[in-house]
User: Fold Claudin domain containing 2 from Balaenoptera musculus.
Amino acid sequence: MGVKRSLQSGGTLLGFLANILTILSTATNYWIRYSGGHSGLWQECSGATCSNIPCQSEARIVGLVTGLRILCQEGDSRGRTTSAIFFLCGLLLLIAVTGYTVKNAWKNDVFFSWSYFSGWLALPFSVLAGFCFLLADTIMQSTDAISGFPVCL
Assistant:
């Protein structure tokens, strides 16, 4: 069960990194820069004054909590559920960041900044975390299926 545990640990670590990058990206105001200021998801700053922008939300913590639960629990596996949550979070992140890109890419004198790229960087971590949990679940099911056969692995 060493490979299964390693995949689950790797998936949890990748999910944790995806969460950190998503929170960092969401909480900061440096998605785009333009002459005289910068803007994020929540505030637009010009010079020394910042004004609020209407809210948006996310839900990725559920995948991390489920991953930690699977990692700390023996027996009954919920790896497919966790991988589906991470894949869904990755898809939602892809839709959100692509929509933001399309909305702002055509503006003159606008440059994407580090908060924006943190959002894009969270995407592969989320997808890879989903694959780790999916592979761990597949290994678990295959070892259960052949456990009755006299085969040495």
